[in-house]
Design a protein that fits this description.
three-stranded mixed sheet, 8 strands, 238 residues, alpha/beta, five-stranded parallel sheet
Length: 238
Amino acid sequence: MPTVGIRCPSNPVAHKLIEVSGHPIAAPSANRSGIPSPTNAEHVRADMDGRIDMILDGGDCEIGLESTVIKLDDDGTGCTILRPGAITADMLSTVCAKVTISRAVIEPSLADDIKPESPGMKYKHYAPKAEVILIDAAEETFIHYVERDSASIRRYGIFTSNESAGSFNGGMMLLLGPRGDAKEASRRLFTLLRRADEMELEKVYALLPPATGEYLAYYNRIVRAAGCRIIKLGNNYN
């Protein structure tokens, strides 16, 4: 593409590497394309062992999701979010006159029809080997669906808040943290997707989060991990 992405990482180890090199560094992500992103050195080792010369371990990722990617408007006063991250639209609105969110962020199924302008915009991305079953429903309906659908599955997992973990009769609990804590759920997401594969789960069930505010980045990643397949259930599901 005729564009270049520029960012300055917050990690002090990355800062020191840039300082020692004396140059800007051009680099891809430290994982193979399509799979859940690494959030620590062991994830990088699992993906890239034998493919790279060394790993600089700067500790676990503090935020857990990739950075927000924006494209500046031609006049420099506004921007479009191409990939949501910890820096939200509300935060950007304090420095940009106009903030637009790409339709491919909110409606990932459009990814095949829109030319990707940023990493992470493909139709299916961040996906574990386990099938991710994403449910758009009230929590009580979600619990009922999981119990019915998982009846014949040997090994499955459930993305759930700490408070709701006791509501399920079976499965492996993949805890997202306290209910309503978007930052903690985002921080844990990729680690939990990788854990699903480590436990050789066949399916992983998750509730669809809202596509707004601090949840937008989590929404964007979990929808792509599910290959943009969303099962919508009404309150009358039984």
